[in-house]
Amino acid sequence: MKNSSLPIAACRLLGGLLLAGAAHAQAPAGAGPGSGAGADEAPGMQLATRGGPGGTAACASCHGAQGEGNAAANFPRIAGQPTGYLVRQLASYAEGSRNNAVMGPIAKALTPQQREQVSAYYATLSAPATKPAQAQGKAEAERGKQLATVGDERASVQSCANCHGPGGVGQAPNYPYLAGQHASYLVAAMRDWKSGVRNTDPSGQMPLIAKRLSDADAAAVAGWFAAQPLPGPASAPVVQRSMMPGQSMPAAPR
Ligand code: HEC
Ligand code: HEC
Known about the structure:
The chain contains eleven helices and two strands; from the N terminus they run H-H-H-H-H-H-H-E-E-H-H-H-H. The protein is mostly helical. Strand 1 and strand 2 form a beta hairpin.
């Protein structure tokens, strides 16, 4: 369901927090008072906290002052995702391979340079963890952990850790972290891979994986990842231990 009235209502609600929060969220290391104006990240920060010319909404109005997202409104966390991953998502929204009524027009209104700038800005943020909306039952958490760490050979689903890293911490630049992401958003993402609304994975693996998981499995693995500790900032690329998109699939777990 791509209802844009909910996001807008939620944005108004969050609006009051922004002034205080934005001032807090900016200031990457080294950008002391007065040094922000000419710095590389300044235009990205401006887009994020104040929006763009021509009325582009401030990203922070939905994604939160520090990129922490909003579980109830289904706005994903984007703080600390790898720059390369974020840039590709914005490009995909703009050209439609990721079809979303809210993000499409926003991404289209940005130039490629602005997408780079705002992505680089969010990659440096580290928003605090938000508590999962509800605790998972024991059996469901076990199933989620199994899929995440071992996979399910019978269903031909390899472990998520093969690509998303141990505990779902992500691997820059291509694999997003799943740890600490809102479960509601992860479930929606799996649904979009399954239906083809999202067709952005250059390796072609995510649509296959999503189709092989039942709704119950998708909910189990989403809930498990949502409860994992957040990764550190994405600035340091993790050693690429497995495939790059386009290469063949890592061996199925045994
Ligand atoms: C009106 C609310 C709203 C605003 C404003 C907004 N977003 Fe989003 N954003 C969303 C929603 C909702 C989604 C999830 C869409 C989906 O399911 O594909 C999203 C998804 C994203 C994603 C994909 C995250 C992922 O993990 O794949 C990125 C990147 C993103 N937004 C960046 C931005 C940037 C940068 C801006 C500012 C230029 C911005 N957004 C402004 C609501 C918003
Ligand atoms: C073969 C590598 C691979 C494996 C294994 C894999 N993924 Fe992914 N996944 C990716 C890539 C690459 C992306 C990013 C695609 C893009 O750029 O849009 C992704 C993106 C995602 C996203 C979207 C995240 C976001 O912020 O929007 C979710 C959710 C996800 N994967 C869940 C899973 C789950 C759950 C499993 C295990 C059952 C899994 N993935 C296993 C490669 C993989």
